[in-house]
Amino acid sequence: MDMLGVPMAEKKRISVDSPATAKSFAQHLREGMDRRGLKQADLIRMASQRGAKLGKSQVSQYVSGKTLPRRAVVQLLSDILEIEPSFLMGEGTPAVSAVSAASSAAAATESAAELTGLDAEPMGSFPTVIPAGSSAISIPDPPGRAEARPAAAPEPRIHMSRLDKNTNSVNSASSHPEGIIMSDAIRTFSKSSKLDNVLYDVRGPVVDEAARLESEGAHILKLNIGNPAPFGFRTPVEVIQDMREQLPDCEGYSDSRGLFSARKAIMQYAQLKGLPNVSMDGIYTGNGVSELINLCMQALLDTGDEILIPAPDYPLWTACATLAGGTPVHYLCDEQADWNPDLADMEFKITPRTKALVIINPNNPTGAVYSKDVLEGIVEIARRHQLMIFADEIYDRLCMDDAEHVSIASLAPDLFCVTFSGLSKSHMIAGYRIGWMVVSGNKRLGSDFMLGVNMLSNMRLCSNVPAQSIVQTALGGHQSVKDYVAPGGRVYEQRNYVYEALNAIDGITAVKPKAAFYIFPKMDVKKFNIHDDEQFALDLLHQKGILITRGGGFNWPEPDHFRIVYLPRMGVLREAMEDLAEFFETYRQA
Fold first, then answer.
1. Phi, then psi, of 440 in degrees rounded to 5
2. Rounded CA separation 410/366 (Å)
3. Pairing of the two strands 221-222 and 546-547
4. GO MF annotations for this entry (predicted)?
5. Choice between 302 and 479, residue whose per-residue pLDDT is larger
6. 415, burial (CB in 10 Å: exposed 0-12, middle 13-18, buried 19+)
């Protein structure tokens, strides 16, 4: 009998000293999937049928051996694969699980509860105990994972050698002078459960696999991230010289909003773009736009608040909204309409909980530049439903083909708008980390939100001061990026070549980008039998050494798109497009 009165012979469970590691668990998981002919997407679908939720990135981490799941997830996966949990944990053989239908349903319910944060089992001295006669299996947390957030602090545990076996009390004669000695069980620390549904595949599992291949000597062509410097794009000389001259004056913190000179230049630039009611106190510099997006989501969203974000999106928006406790709701952009937002879909998805809407214009990953008519339609929707507008305009100086960029805030003087931009792309200085946000329009509507922004801005003290020191020169001097995006320029010509090369591949179509560095081609999923875009990305990586970002990484709902960065020089792009065409000639996803 154990300490809770259950016969030990009737308790089927994995020992705390299970030999499982993340790598060995992944190996056994893949073996179990192979036995049943299942893919990662099947695990996600079958988990959903059992009332539980597994994210794509979450499953990928388990399959690639990056992390060990919690016990509820182990139980769920063993039910799906119809094998004993002990096999997944490195004990025993892949025998078909003896769990009865009723017990399996109960286990699935328990798994669903833990996976969705409902009725989660608190960390304690003993694992869950299955009543005598039950064939269900109780699984303690595997080594390397612990409950993300215990409901209460665990009760102190003591060595049995320190326990009076007759009274179950501590033997005071051998008490440790500093108190009760803890047991030999080692507490480990897992990532926060808040990250379970966070996705950032621009630097995700496929990128991790590319790094592994590189470590083994493979050459990988990285078409996954818009980082100009590795492809030979240089920062304007006058910008570098300005920073060198000002470095001695940049050793201390600046105002939390930023240097006066930087904010003054940003304010004047915003005024030229037609943003209404702009003032110095509504301008904030950041370590790139990324930091400021995260800051705004934390300042605005309460648990359950909804925010409209485009699909496809730049995934940081969805990730930051999720981490802040909000609920991202994705409205569709229409590929047949040059990837402009579908206004009917946008309005259809507004609920009483919707607080704000996001536009990314020019768009990443599609390269779309929204027309003034579309922007006016978005403003009308925001006006009708009293929504705040966030406008990500980091690529506003990289428009091609005479496309005119219009800032949505210039069309909405009566609404509360926050506009984001920066120098990372327009001045090829992504590593300098300098971006900004400008508050405009009816600021009274967001006065309390701005108190939160001020607090968070003060908490991080300030953004990179040397990078701030170049903003005035960068915005006021010669805009060398214009040479890149004009006919004959590198970005312009490389965009044209990649667009034509992709559309020449049987089964691939692409809308011509009007701005930025990206193109978002569509694959004929029937022709290529594609049902898992992450698997497609891995297959392309393994067969051709080409690293791209799958469409699902941008929260696109179908496995039929991927993003290519067309920053490499023309010779490299030609080789890449030839390899890509060769790949699709024979590719059929298993």
1. -145, 175
2. 23
3. parallel
4. DNA binding; L-alanine:2-oxoglutarate aminotransferase activity; pyridoxal phosphate binding
5. 302
6. buried
